[in-house]
Structures are given as structure tokens and as C-alpha cells.
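Notebook p. 47: complex prediction with flavin-adenine dinucleotide.
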Amino acid sequence: MPQIRALRRVASLLTTPLAPEDFIRLVNPLASTRQLRGIVTKVTRETADSTTIAFRPGKGWNAHAAGQWARIGVEINGVRQWRSYSLSAAAGHDPAITVTAIGFVSTALARDTKVGDVLFLDTPQGDFVLPVHPRPLLMLTAGSGLTPVMSMIRTLVPRRQDADVVLIHSARSPEEALFHDELLELADQFPGLTVRHWYTRAGGAKAGTDAFNREPRRLNLTDTTDLESMCPDWRDRAAYACGPAEFLDAASELWERDGDDAGHANLTIERFAAVLLPGTGGEGGIVTFEKSDKEVEVDGDVPLLDAGEDCGVVMPSGCRMGICRSCLIPLVAGKVRDLRTGEVHGEEGELIQTCVNAAAGPVHLDI
Ligand SMILES: Cc1cc2nc3c(=O)[nH]c(=O)nc-3n(C[C@H](O)[C@H](O)[C@H](O)COP(=O)(O)OP(=O)(O)OC[C@H]3O[C@@H](n4cnc5c(N)ncnc54)[C@H](O)[C@@H]3O)c2cc1C
Ligand code: FES
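Predicted complex, C-alpha cells below:
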């Protein structure tokens, strides 16, 4: 509206050199016309390495469906870093993420976040969500892969009497199992939920039993023995799996090979990292980040996103696995290799997904 634009111009003149938004933000940190934000309302230590961060999002946030994820930005040493996190809270509740400290950003989030901190946000997305029509479900998770599934369980189990969910969760030990006590309480309270923990340090034995001290062993998904012992009717259930890459690859092969006729279609998978084709990296090259006036020589298997960040370029990013397209940067010259397929491509002006493409010879990027 012209009146609003005129008012903003007057406010800008009065507040220069800062924009009016900067003053509004001093009063309300969630108010920003440029970037969606959230304010941290609660921080809960879940395990030695994992922390749940609940936040109240500002205007522009869309309520999440159980199982979805969002891009979360956080300022570390003055640089805004973006990563993706599944929303662990039940749908219909204020959002929360549960972060396991494994690297640069996750460690800062899990260890340093305080109530009142401001997070930068993008709206929730993803199609790892509950089926539209109620069905018996099998949730197969390991480590931090429980997070999106926890949102599904919190959403479904207390609200639907007809819920029929079996959760098989693999963790190293009861102390390292996310949401351990809450899950056991939910299973006690609601007959629609069965929880089976697999503790790898105890070879899968149940905590508190004599067998608990047996040899360490991972849940074996190369055949159906372990699965059948914990969930005999697994073939009749819609299955959801989330966890480390090898765990998901094994699950995917098992459903393909030993599932019912629907096979693979019965299993929905959420990955936290891209599936790269082994051995795709070929010849690398010198990458020039033109606007940043930086140059670095990299091997052919290093994503351009990592190459830029390593030499101090502020690179846009999100999922870091080729799904959100937040990392697109125009190519000025050169060829790049898609690390998922091995395909070499690159035309001047082409938008390059820097998280899944590497240099194939000298590359110039418009950043
Ligand atoms: C859709 C989606 C949902 C996600 N949800 C969650 C979540 O709920 N909780 C959570 O803690 N993380 C989640 N992640 C992973 C998260 O986005 C970051 O990748 C993770 O926190 C590591 O970031 P970092 O900066 O700490 O590590 P970096 O310093 O960037 O890298 C550490 C290394 O660990 C690898 N890595 C990434 N994720 C994992 C993992 N889960 N296990 C082992 N290695 C990994 C990376 O590929 C990289 O090589 C999710 C990722 C995606 C794409
Ligand atoms: S960061 Fe999401 S596609 Fe590259």
C-alpha cells in the first residue's frame, strides 16, 4: 500500500543508518520482515550428546506435520550457519528440535543454546509423514533418527485409540537412547504402542535382564531373524525408517528382498545425509569464488559447499544433501560433477547445487 510505503520511508529517514526493523527487533526479536525467526523457550538435555531446543516461531511459520523438518540458522562466531533438523514435538504443539552433537553446528546448538536465544528459521517441509489412513505401523530407528518418528508417536499414540505402532529403536545403551523414559511411559499408558529397544553394547538384550551383559552386537538387517524376533508381523505394517546411512541401506535391501509383494513401497525412509555414489570423485581443480575474491584447490570428491566454507566464503546452505536447493550458486565458467550420479555438467549461468557437486577441472562461481 502506498501509505505504508510512505510511512516506512519516513521511519527509515528517522532511524538511519539502521533500518526500522532493527529498532523493532530490539523490542521484539521475532519481528523481521526479512527473515523468519524463533525464540528459544526451553532447553532440555536428553542424553550426554543430545539436547532438545523448543522455540516459539514468529509470524510466517507454518505449523508442522509430524515427521517434517526445518532449516535452522544459528550465528556462530558472527557467521550464520544453516542445518536441517527434524521437528521432534507433536504436531499442533510449539516446535522443538533434538540435536545430537556430532560436528561444528550441532555441537554449538546442543551445548551452547540458552532460553531467550534467537534462531533463524525456514518453514517446515518434507514428506516423511504419517499415512493419511490409519494403518499398523513399524518404526525402525537408530540414534538421532528417532527424532522425526518421536513427533509421529507423540502425535498419533495419545490421540488415536486405534493406533497400532511398534517402535524398534537401536541405541548403544539405555543412557544413550533418546526419549527413553518417555517412550516406556507412553507404552505403559497406551496399548497402541509397543517399544522394543535394541542396545548394541548389550547385543540387543533387554535392560535389567541377565542377558544384558552379553557381547556387543548391532541390529542385523542383512536377514530377517532380528526383525522377526521383535516384530513378527513386520511385513503387514507400513514401515518408517530413519538412522545412519548403512542402517537405512540394509533396511531398504531387506524390504526389497524379503518384504511382501508391495516390498519397497511399504518402507518410507528419511535420510539425514545425501547418498553419494562411491568413487564418483574424479579430477578436481581450482575453484574461484569470484565475488568473495577467494580461490582454493580441491579434490574431485569435495562438495563445492565444503570447499567454499573451508576457505571462509559465506555459502548459502540448508539440507546439505541435495533436496532443499538452498545452496544454488550460478556457475560463471567450468564443469562440475554431480556426486550422486557421476554426471559432469555445467553451462554458464547454470545454478549449481553446491552441496552435491564437486569441481571437474577449474570452476568459477558467482559468489
Ligand atoms: C532432513 C534432515 C533432518 C535432520 N534431522 C536431524 C535431527 O533431528 N537431529 C540431528 O542431530 N541431526 C539431524 N540432521 C543432521 C543435521 O542437519 C546436521 O547434518 C548434523 O547436525 C551435523 O551437522 P554439523 O554441522 O554438526 O556437522 P558437520 O561439521 O557439518 O559434519 C559432520 C559430518 O557428519 C555427517 N553427518 C551428518 N548427519 C549425521 C548423522 N546423523 N550421523 C552421523 N554423521 C552425520 C556429515 O555428513 C559430515 O560428514 C538432519 C538432516 C537432514 C537433512
Ligand atoms: S543445501 Fe539443500 S540442496 Fe544443497
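Notes: Residues 317-320, 322-327, 353, 355 surround FE2/S2 (inorganic) cluster (ligand 2) (CB under 6 Å). The mean pLDDT is 89.
Next step: compare against the earlier run before touching the bench.
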